[in-house]
Amino acid sequence: MKKETDSPLRRPKLSGSRVIVCQYFRQLSSLLNGQVTLLESLQNLSLQTDYPAFQPVAQDVSRTVEAGNPFSEALQRYPTIFSADIVAMVRAGESNGQLTALLVQASQSLEKRLSLILRIQAALFYPALVLSVTLLLSLVITTTVLPNFVEIFRSSSMPLPWATVVLMHVTDAVGSFWFWLAVLGLGLIAYPFARHWLTSQRGQIAVETVIWKTPGLGPLAKYSALSTYCLVLENLITSGVYLPESVEIAAAASGSGLLIADAPKLKLAIEDGQSPSEHYLRAPHLYPPSLGHMVRAAEESSHLAIAFSSVAQWFSQELDFRIELLRAMIEPVLMAVVGSMVAFVVLAIFLPLYSNLSALGG
Which positions ≥6 away from 316 have C-beta within 8 Å? Predict the structure, then answer.
């Protein structure tokens, strides 16, 4: 007999789950602040149909709590929807009797993280759209317009420039059935290996290391991960979650393979009696020195949560600056890329035509 947690319902795939969970906790905290009991609040939320795919999850959570189980246990049944840091905060609230306050804090934390993700998506949307349209138009031109010029060039006995020769080979390849069959075959063969490698810790670390070192995009990814990391740590420490456990949960919530790989080392160092600031300062390639110095000052004054809150706010402001900087950089880069492609095609077409016209005129 299968365990209950193995049921397909326990691991649903929801589109836009961050938005759904954020709204769920926002409404739940509002109901609890209105002196509605937890069970009644969950039952009310389970009847809402704004997100039909989420309704079975909300109903099951409500039934689980109604059966006498803790709210944190009900959320833990859906690890793909409710992150470990939210579950830990709820569990801490149940143990110290401050569930309502911590649910409000969890709701605010989710909203901040969602805002962070939306800002990054908005910054990357424009370049992704321009590149997609450019590639699509290039494909259309290569398959419909350029073949006519290729036939003209082949019928000519005059030597062709290297740009024209390259363009002819590209046009022949893109218009060939065997080319696309080879691409499809290679893609099908490489996909499972690439997916396995990219989902492994080694693959994630390798890819993220390259991204963090990429000009423009690297600081964006790094400050995004660190901002989420510090924000989650602040919430967990305020909730009273054990610090070694908090650093692992925060690293997982950040989504950064580099921080996740470093979390066990940090946890072991803390359990051995070392301060987090010492570890942060020994790893400047992962953590900016400002994080280590602020945490060290907070350790002396016993205000660790405030330090992580301040650093998270600073990382968020730095991220906004990097986003604006990326937007300022990306437009001229895209114009240069698109302009270079257009110039190459124009030269490849008109250089031999000009040579033919000159020969005829001579």
Answer: 112, 116, 227
